[in-house]
Amino acid sequence: MAEQRKPLVTHIYTADPSAHVFDGKLYIYPSHDVALDCPDDDNGDQYQMEDYHILSMDSLDAPCVDNGMVLHENEVPWVSHQMWAPDAACKNGKYYLFFPAKDKDGIFRIGVATSDSPAGKFTPEPNYIEGSKSIDPAVLVDDDGRAYMYVGGLWGGQLEKWQTGEYVENPVEPAADGPALGPLVAEMTDDMLGFKTPLQEVKILDENGNPLLAGDHDRRFFEASWMHKYKDTYYFSYSTGDTHYLCYATGKSPMGPFTYRGRILEPVIGWTTHHSIVEWNDKWYLFYHDSSLSGGVNHQRCVMFTEIHYNEDGTIQTIVPYENEK
Ligand code: FUB
Hints:
By secondary structure, the protein is mostly beta strands.
């Protein structure tokens, strides 16, 4: 079976699936949406997640198992609320759960928790990663063992509040005809608990080598970073937010620059779109979410997957959700 374009689990709401193959088994690290009765706003206040559950699958035909709650906001001293999209990594036999959450001042930071098992439970570090900011961490452990974290998200994700280097509550938006704000990247320390160097902006360029413009909402970065490597090329993929596309850009270095290449997924049911891309048994899969399980409530989502296909030139064939479904 190459796809399951329907919820992998239905007993809880899940979103932002970061899929990894650890020890021959597929693990999914999602957000755990809460069924809150509240209106939407551009600040993302409707996303009030409190904890993380880890899902796993022995094969793509096997049932998806909920391994239970592995980390709660009450266990993390620096967190006030809103545990958003996490990612995980394995290095030297240890497992790391990276997660964004608001600190006691209401500023999004990135935390890390560790475990000896990919299914947890995870023990948080007492403080957030020094120098971390914004949301949606995605971590690549490269073939040479070096690891990189990508972060960033506009509006509720607060990325535009950091344009001056300091946190500014009411920032000036970038001009529509100026360069778009890019995601941020830093190489991680060998123990995976910190940044070797400060976060720096990732450049996403158009076909002529110019930065994508802030007004180019169909292509510019909004949130949901993911990095994967296919045939020695680095694929940085992301959501365009208010235009609801999953797009990707490619490059020759994990630090960028990356050149925009196209769309991976057309809009799904629900405002947000967020994904991961993983290879398993020589096939490539897109894990993503929509809001179909709740009948379209933006903050009550469900994770699913489908196979992705590359063309000869390395481009990815665009997926149209719900195609051929009735
Ligand atoms: O799940 C909360 C936020 O919604 C994530 O951090 C974003 O990527 C979007 O999916």
